[in-house]
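Quick check before the chapter quiz. The format below is the same one you will see on the exam, so make sure you can read both the input and the output lines.
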Amino acid sequence: MMLLAYSLAALPNAFAADAVPSEPVAVHFLAADPLALDSAPAVADDEDGDDPAASDDSDESSVKAEKEAVRSGKASADTSSKASDKKSKKRTIKIIQKKNFMKIGRYEAGPQIGFVTNDPFLNRYILGVTFDYHITEIFAAEIQAHYSPILGTGGENDPDWKALTKQILSENSVSPDISKLDAMGSAALAFSPIYGKAAVGRKIIAFDIFGTFGLGAIHTVDDYKALQVKEDDVDYQSTAQEWHPTTVISGGARVAFGESIAARLEGKATSYVEAINGGTLEMKNNFILQGGVTFFFPSMK
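Here is the expected output.
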């Protein structure tokens, strides 16, 4: 009996030593021993070897670290990698828009009005027409014809005379060598190297810059009253009306308001030699500023 009592007294110490091993293990009990059941849950619940308190501390520290990174403006590793992926996907895409106004293979015709800007003695107003065939978008063949009406017959009340002419004739008795341009025709090669678009309100309009080089002829009429000679003077009559070959250089801009209509503004320079009063030769350089509306046909393909 005493041996049995000693064995029963030593049994709890043996189970207590086995209940806390050096490494966590799962323990299975075959006997319903109260001492073993009390110690079993502590070991079985901690099978993965993690300390709950340590896990909570690590989660809290990671949240704090992420908040600090956001406050300081430094992205985390995941955020940086996502941003770099987005940047790598971004790229510049160049788009060539279709031209909404084409000239190639089309005719252009329309009226023009203008005036001679650099004649100090006479007012010369110009009425004209232009006719172009656009060989390509850049090059075109052009023909222009102009008429400048003679509005007076000379004298103080002549609307063609400027104030300077009236002054030097009436006050200084000086006869200026002047002649009135009354007609002109020219043929030229036009080129349009610059094309663009502009936004006007909600509408997009097309424009181009062009220049022309060509030859032509100018018809002039001498003013015998300004020359202070008789109308039937032989020398005067020999050169009273003449055609002069001339060079033509011009440049301007064309603004298209639709497929078939455009506005033009251009400056035209002409140079020619004329004989005044039967023998005096003069080099004349006229600069004409003109504008108008032109129409394109047929319709664009």
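If your answer matched, good. The chain has seven helices and eight strands.
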